Amino acid sequence: MGDTNGQVVAGDNGAERRLDQLNEPTDVLIDKETDSLIICDSENRRVVRWSRRSGTTPGEVL
Question: Domain coordinates of the chain in residue numbers?
Answer without folding.
Answer: 25-61
